[in-house]
Amino acid sequence: MSELTGNRIRTTAAKLGLPHLAETINEFARRADEGKLGYLDFLDLVLSEELAVRDDRRFRQGLRLSRLPHHKTLDEYDFSFQPELDPRKIKDLATLSFVEAKANAALLGPPGVGKTHIAIALAVAACRAGYSIYFTSLDDMVRNLKAAEAAGRLTSKLGSYLRPSVLVVDEVGYQPLERAEANLVFQVISKRYEKGSIILTSNKTFSEWGQVFGDEVLATAILDRLLHHCEVVPINGPSYRLKNRLQAIERETDVA
């Protein structure tokens, strides 16, 4: 490939919004020569790599906007430490069929069993698959909605929790809510109903949500919409955090 041709292709690729091709056309040409690629094979190579680069860029941008506290995967989850949890249930969720169906997933159990880890891993998988995601604790969501309501910007702020394909709501039940706060949560749940997926984690059983939301009727209304299309996964095992802390203490004792 002549230098003139290469420059012309780089200019055209840049105008078409194909930055990877513009940067690597010489490398593509070399690989085509070495592999003796035909025209269609060469075109397939260029377009496939450009798409892969674009998907990776979109994935990384999606993660940056997601507010995820960290990026965990299911490969990092120790299922052997939670023998009562059937890995097949989580792997079924990881197919993201519930996201495609705009259904929900609820991970219930005591603190430290890995609920948030699984929720984040599912969100990361959804982001990789092209879905928009957003992470919030319930307390942060309520606080932000209250502030927006006081400032007359509630509708705009609600959009932050309604637009994503997948909304992760962490730590439901750690702090009881006042009725006005619970009503804000109801607005999010009801407006997302059959329009987008929610992945939530909670240390409370659903029978305790009346206490969490300060009103049995309102809690029932929330649960009615949330559970109509929902995969519920109870995790009732030992705490990973306690396990790690005990291991650290044992190491410190051994050193001493």
UniProtKB/TrEMBL annotation:
The keyword RNA-binding does not apply. SMART domains: AAA (SM00382). InterPro entries: AAA+_ATPase (IPR003593), DNAC/IstB-like (IPR028350), IstB (IPR047661), IstB_ATP-bd (IPR002611), P-loop_NTPase (IPR027417). PANTHER family: ATP-BINDING PROTEIN RV3427C IN INSERTION SEQUENCE-RELATED (PTHR30050:SF4), CHROMOSOMAL REPLICATION INITIATOR PROTEIN DNAA (PTHR30050). It comes from the Bacteria. Residues 101-234 form the AAA+ ATPase domain. Keywords: ATP-binding, Nucleotide-binding. Belongs to the IS21/IS1162 putative ATP-binding protein family. This is IS21-like element helper ATPase IstB. The gene is istB. It holds the Pfam family IstB_IS21.
